[in-house]
Amino acid sequence: MTDIRRELSATEVQDFKSRAIELAAEARRIIKTALASGFDVKRKPDGSFVTSVDLRVEERLRELIRTRFPAHGVIGEERPPSNPGADFQWIIDPVDGTEDLVHRVPVFGTIIGLHYHGQPIVGVIDIPMLDICVSGAFGLGAFQNNERILLGDLPSALPGEGARIMLGARANFTRYGDDGRLFDAVTRAYPNHRIYRSCYAHACAVTGAADATVDYGNRIWDLAASRILVEEAGGKYVVIQDADIPGTGRVYGAVFGKPALVDRLAALLRRLKAGETAE
């Protein structure tokens, strides 16, 4: 099957990537200004945090996209979708890791993805307090700041304790159902793991700072940039959850990073989801 993204020229894709990086820079400016001057914090009905920073970033990015690409759609965490039938959809998480922002843990950031007919063509993850901007585009590679990322791989027989794994919190696995056993199995099989509930874990898998990331129970804006980034870096991305949750919408999980390890993790999780044991 022909990849529909090949309909787009490299020049078009590069322009979209440049615009996405500009959006991320604007988000960073707003976030850093708010950290210096202060911001409001509230709770959503589900108990999660939302701040005036989240709202301001999304409002500003929507405004810039609407001005530059009026025919494009926008999906964001804090506002209803606009132009949902458009071929091009900008997908935004204005502050991924809002709880970390509230508590000044510097691993929060902004996620920006551009999808064409449902396929990712541009991704940016910007983590302002660590000065990390990971960007990539279809056919154009992936970069950390201005340095090209080229992921290696791990030996397929590497013991579990030799791999560096990042995961979301166990709460991610139990938020929409009791899949805590998946978290438990991964952490037992790969004891050299770290827990981050933010886009920092995704950026680490893309750059090779971690060998793979397992994330679960996410909305589309949480994963909007990760597939294109890791694939353009030379890694692999495998979907392990795609479920329609009543009252919530579609929820996703994925494993991504160095290919051999991703295959092992995905196989483990699929066995567990099929009701088999981890062994």
UniProtKB/TrEMBL annotation:
Mg(2+) 1 binds at E77, D96, D222. Keywords: Magnesium, Metal-binding. It comes from the Bacteria. Mg(2+) 2 binds at D93. Transmembrane segments: none annotated. One of its GO terms (biological process) is inositol metabolic process. The keyword Iron does not apply. Its cofactor is Mg(2+). Pfam families: Inositol_P. GO terms for molecular function: inositol monophosphate 1-phosphatase activity; metal ion binding. PANTHER family: INOSITOL MONOPHOSPHATASE, INOSITOL-1-MONOPHOSPHATASE-RELATED. Belongs to the inositol monophosphatase superfamily. This is Inositol monophosphatase. It comes from Candidatus Muproteobacteria bacterium RIFCSPHIGHO2_02_FULL_65_16.
